[in-house]
Predict the 3D structure of the following.
Amino acid sequence: MKISVIGPGAVGTMLGGLFQVKGHEVTLRGRKRAADQGRIVRIVLPRQWIAAEGIQRQAAEDPIGDHDIVLVTLARHHLHAVRRPDFARLIGAGEEPVAFFNCDPAEPERLAVPADRTRLCLTLMTAVKLQDADVELASEMPTIIHEKSPLLSRLFKDLAGFGFRALAVDDVRPHLNSFLISQLLFLPVAMCNTTLECFLSAPEGRDLAQRMLSEGFLTMERAGLPLAALPVMDPGELMQRLEKKPGSFASAPSTPNRGYNTILQSCLRGRPIEAAHLNRKIVDIASSAGLHLTWNWRILQKAGRVPGVGFYRSPAELLQSLS
């Protein structure tokens, strides 16, 4: 299968590399073309590492070649910044499916992608891009939830040998809504230069997480947006555990693991442009539904602190600054 990947960040590079290893022809389309077309993509999985050779690279302005499917793995804020005519050139004028990963469900319609070409997907995993051609999977149980489609089922079946599982559902939107709630914690965790596990090991981190997640659930309820339980990284399960067994988080190791979320990855590279996007989205949804959020709004006000002053030393210091 000929696959075009738009947005070769950590997830796009990893998926493209794995599909290339399985015999597909993959082209990574980013902001600029790589000088070395034959550069090997190295993928570090929990129990093995893989080298993918022969991946082609194109700049966004290059004309798209023949392809059987387009995978759009742009981060939410990058996709939201793309204009409709530019996106039309990126995906081409054919009838091939366009699979959007982890996007705002409203984006395909805004970008005028025909409904019969649109496929919504959700990746539940943490991938860290070490450098341009190196990416590491930091999740033990990477999961892809996708809209029911024979083509996607065949494609994602190829990832089973790498430890991935794929779940086909009638409607991915409720799962995307749940994922947005879980992502609300990306920003405060990143502002403390840590991972979620370490963040929740502090009582102040658990307190802040409960407040922000509660606002997310209330917003979705008030806005009439349905939720679906996620097989991993489920915010509802996390909330229940925070309420009933808060002490179970205290035994987490004090040293962060490799599971750096995307906002922290951006901050460490000096590109924290994604930092406020997810929390701003929930604030905007709440505002449209007549709700005023407190904690997610306060986090937004602190989002620019890290580039200018530096990371917070602990969840306690962050919570104190918000109170």
In short: The longest helix spans residues 203-223. The chain has two domains: 2-170, 175-322.
